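User: what does the whole thing look like in 3D?
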Amino acid sequence: MSEERNIIVGIDLGTTNSLVAYMGNATPLVIPGEDGSNLVPSVVALNSGEKDFAVGNPARKYLVETPERAVYSIKRLMGRGLEDVREELKFFPFRLSENLQPGEILRIKLGDKEFTPPEISALILRQLKRNAERYFGKPVTQAVITVPAYFNDVQRQATKDAGRIAGLEVLRLVNEPTAASLAYGLDKNKEGIVAVYDLGGGTFDISILKLHEGIFEVIATNGDTHLGGDDIDNLLITIALDDIAGDMRLDLRRDGEAVQAIRKAVIDAKIELSAREKTAISVGLPGNKKYEREISRLQFEQLIEPIVLRTAGPCRQALADAGLTAEQIDEVVLVGGSTRIPRVRALVKELFKREPHTEMNPDEVVALGAAVQANILAGGSQATQDMLLLDVTPLSLGIEALGGVVAKIIHRNSTIPASATEHFTTGVEGQTNVAIHVLQGERELAKDCRSLARFDLKGIPPMPAGLPRIEVKFLIDANGILHIAAKEQRSGKEAEIEVKPTYGLTDEQVENMILESFDYAEEDFRQRQIVEARNEAENILLALEKGRRNSAWNQLGESERKEIASAEAELKQTRTREDYRLMRDSIEKLNRVTTRLAELMMDSAIGSALKGKDMEQLRADGPAAPHPIAPAEIES
Amino acid sequence: MVKLFMAIETHIANPGKTAGDRPQCWSCGEPLTAGSHFCSRCSKVQPPQAVDYFSFFELPRKLNIDTNALEKVFYKLSRRLHPDLYVRATPQEQEWSLEISSRLNDAYRTLKDPIARTQYLLSLEGVQLEEQSKAATDRARQTGEEKKQVVPPDLLEEVFELNIQLQELRMSDEKDPEVIAQLEDAKKSFEAKLQSVHWELKKLWDHWDQLWDSNTQNDNTERLQVRDQMVDLLNRRSYMRNLVRDVNEALQN
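Assistant: Here's the predicted 3D structure for the full assembly of 889 residues, as structure tokens:
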């Protein structure tokens, strides 16, 4: 077996669309799905048998026909709780589980079954994994996944959990604007200060980076994880529903199918208006009615102005945090589908006083950047050998102190990994536990910040109150995720830490979900078997082609050649089928009847260097499994 | 993560087999120079060491630093320590790289900013600066305890005036333009004072560095004087910045 590097792919798990990409020795490329498209819509549906899922394009029809079985934009629910999403749920046709407790992870109903957001994201990741495995003809188990830069710890952990449930080892979470800058900086060999403005389906990020000799150093980042194209869509949907209620006296707010049909129509209109000055929203309604409304680009821009302006504040704050003025920025890069809107581009030009770069595909650049990072983690290639990413944590980390006030211990925009050490003591004689409430955010009061988790430090040796000296170390790793370790210094005892994550899954829950997902793994397994068998079939057929051109072919008898031809024909037939066992049988058969041919070729190979090259070529082209007509591999 | 403590403890307790008195590289056995993050022969990363930020960057405890040179060293060390480069290394090396690079980042962040640098050096000298944070102020407000803070005596009158004006503004519904103008003036006055504090600090940094260069063995008193003057200035600076912040907040609302 040759010393091959494991394939590490880059994944953009987007609100609206997801992609998987890979960078070998050349430029990064997006890996297409079976249908040939690069984008996998982030839509998941449960079919009526409640056994199988549809993911991506096949799932979209469910949205309109049976919306109670489908879900889209699940990213907006990752790492969030009931209180966060009440507003959103008005527009989404999703039903939540009835008895959700405060602080508990959300559960969504598809048909009669319930799923948490990480499980649904895992289904999308699994589809991308399959696409990659089909492309490479071998297992893919490691990935870099992107997240919005402004995602908090809980949201990041949810993304990692989704990866695990999908059977992927997530080697790194990369911030989306940073990933985009990698793709941008890769071929340009850029130096200077770059601002990345990333407005996607559900999230907005602005990052300011310094590029110098291959180092991509984030100086400041800001954003809004609750702002994107979906908000524009929802605004238009509301207007349409109001129109319809007023003009046609039809209240369609509760009609899931109608709302989804309207949604599709307004999205089409929105996209049209990026290219045209005027268009019409046109929807077929129940009862053979029709809703039509003309809308001009000017009207559209007026409507969405408040939403677009919400991106200005974070931009100004990021500049302030970076200690820079707009003039000091060298380049501005646009990322995300929503940056196709002319008004958005105009605003970016106003804010940064220059024309933004638009030459990169805003839908693909994040995935390509993730692939670049994956390449760096895999050991790098000529293009990436000097590249290094230095990212920051977007939100300040703090502990709740007396009076409900937050004491900040790691400030926002600190380069990660970053750490801080704090000391605690007990308030009561013999106290063996200390509780710490950790939060993220910039506000002064705990109730205004995002609760990350409550840590219970247990096993503190009983002592008089105030005597124990508990040292707690907080470390934010390169993924932007928090780890803590605690130790009572007088006794030297390490405190046991129990983590109660807010809106998250415990390790045990994730483990269970991985086990459950083995039900779907059967299908995965079958798919992989088919892919691998097909690959082997290709290789042996290719080898046979070369064998025919070899002089050894002429040494075969007439009946032998007939046998080979018949086995070859059989294999060519079975390899198009979905039954991998049949394929394997045909491969075996062809193997057997070509044994003598292989031996004959071996004999003459020893004398000819050119022949050896052919063998090398064969070996290099296919998977690492030994070929039937190839030199014997000598195991050392 | 809990293992990290153990890692450091075992290293300090028994830092690997020693050749004579010096610790050895865990991978190739080459003796290590104290304070180095890597083995000079095989370049493998070594266990983290508990050194202060100045030592981490191999800098003397001086207050003027060439930040360009500092950045270069930061980049150079990042290229060898960042966790991204240890994805295929042993779990032990991964832990060490995580620990050391977090220290690298903390050290760089502290040394890069002159004020943070000064505060850090003073803390190494055993000085506790006053609790000037907004959180402490709010906490004090909540619990009714007295915040540990001293009003610089020469500012007493101005601060008194300012507090009255702030009070007035907060209490009244209409924004009296005269009070607003007074607050703007007060703000400008304090900002000017902050500027002169900065110049004075700069002189003290130079003085401190001079003492370091000339000789540290002699008379400690001069050094302690400079140290205490810096403490005073930092407290003064912190106090005035809080005032300016309060005024800005009041003016915005």
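In plain terms: The first strand of chain A starts at residue 8 and ends at 13. Residues 124 and 447 of chain A are 34 Å apart (CA to CA).
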